[in-house]
Amino acid sequence: MHISVSDFPPGTTEEEVRQVLEAYGVPIRSVTLEGKPDGPHTLAVVDIDTDQTGARALAGRIDGHIWKGRRLRAYAHLFLR
Description:
Elements: E1 2-8, H1 14-22, E2 28-34, E3 42-48, H2 52-62, E4 66-67, E5 70-71, E6 73-77
Antiparallel strand pairs: 1-3, 1-6, 2-3, 4-5
């Protein structure tokens, strides 16, 4: 399953995204960052080892989380990347 997490600050690394999400206890398969290096924010598309219900629950727990002064937004997706 995939979730997307938006509004990470520019310069956020894949390792930082992993650290934020691993705190929720879900194994992460991969992290892909999207966004311009000089843009206002970064989007992370995360492949997680869980089912649809788990992905929705994780996205719900992350949505609204404040990290480095930014309110993160998270969504569960049913697509394969």
